[in-house]
Amino acid sequence: MSDDNESLPFSEHRQQVEAQLDPATTAVVVVDMINEFLEDGGLMVLASGRRLYRPIQQLVDAAHTAGARVVWLRDQHADESDPEFRKRIVHCLEGSWGTQIVAALHPGPDDIIMPKSTYSGFFRTPLHETLQAHGIRTLIVTGVVTNICVRSTTHDAFFLGYEVLVPEECVSATSDREQESSLYDIDTHYGTVTSLERVLELLVQRQVA
Q1: Catalytic site residue 87?
Q2: Each residue of 9-58: pLDDT tens digit?
């Protein structure tokens, strides 16, 4: 007798996971919301990412109120010999205006601001060790861009054992096609794609409880 699962479409071979979190063991990770990628004068501007300013700040404020950690990742490269520049133009050089978080967003005094030198926030950074030191088990990943740095960070978070939530209103890709495809892949293989409304509800529910 054949296994019933063998007849399912490939996309259905997955576990359905309901979004949940505990603020005490949760961190919001804000990826690359910096001048170079978002503001006029930046070298690689994704203008559609500006629509994330309000929802990300709303989430960050809610995380602060609920007692969750917030980590801001900033793309930053030491010099023009960085291997990434074999594929991308020179950008986000250390000490430049481009590496700074956009003025529209406001980190809290206890937030962690951490540079990263490639797409994933975990590659050759102290992010994992920092999160572990704070007892973090769940990550809410936000920022730009969905199909590159957000996706790479989400992959590595999953590989390292974190529960990953991605509120779809808080990420932006290089195109609608890439947004849809990347969120589909994240939801089926690496985490749970949900709504900002649901994440805010979970933060408030745990705070009240």
Answers
A1: no
A2: 655 666 666 778 999 999 999 999 999 999 999 999 999 999 999 999 99
Residue 171 exposure: Cα atoms within 13 Å on the Cβ side: 31
Active site residue 116: yes
Residue 43 to residues 35, 89, 99, 129, Cα–Cα distance (Å): 9, 8, 11, 31
Which pTM does this prediction carry?
0.91
- The 3-state secondary structure of 72-113 reads EEEECECCCCCHHHHCCCCCCECCCHHHCECCCCCCCCCCEE
Can you tell me the distance from the alpha carbon of 51 to that of 48, in angstroms, rounded to the nearest whole number? 6
**Residue 141 φ/ψ, nearest 5 degrees:** -100, 130
Options 75, 111, 116, 156, the catalytic residue: 116
> Which residues on neighbouring strands pair with residue 73, listed in sequence order?
31, 114
